[in-house]
Amino acid sequence: MINLFLDLDGTLAKFNSKRNALKRFDNEIGFFANLKPYKYIEFVNELANNENVNVYVLSATPNDQADQDKLVWIEKYLNNIKKENICFSRIGENKAKVIKDKLNITIDNNCLLLDDYTKNLIEWQNLNGIGIKRITSKADNSRKLWKGYCLKDLRQLSILINSIVNA
Fold this sequence. Notes:
6 strands, six-stranded parallel β-sheet
């Protein structure tokens, strides 16, 4: 069984293109809830129906209000994901450690993280998980710090998961 953990900001939701996104996210009610998803998000939502994949949301927020905004967004765009599979960390926390503490899941090579932030992917990999870098613009991974799996098109996610599992 594969555990797939999904980041939201800049990975599934168009966050980075918004002006003053971090500041607005911290204090503007409804900011995240009103973000548009990236193209082909329905392919991600369909994975939640796959009996061989447990799909989780694992996303960082600055506060409880932002948690609520993200829940609204998830209900709108990722409504196949079980409520108990939604986990928020605070910005700067090690996501892998949050999963272990909050969901009692040990990160191993059956745990995949789709995220746009290299630091999160490296921390995940350091605990034996498999990271997948979400590439949404030319600037993503332009410094070539991430050497692992990369994904540009969400339609390819299940193909990438199968190739990782069968490697």
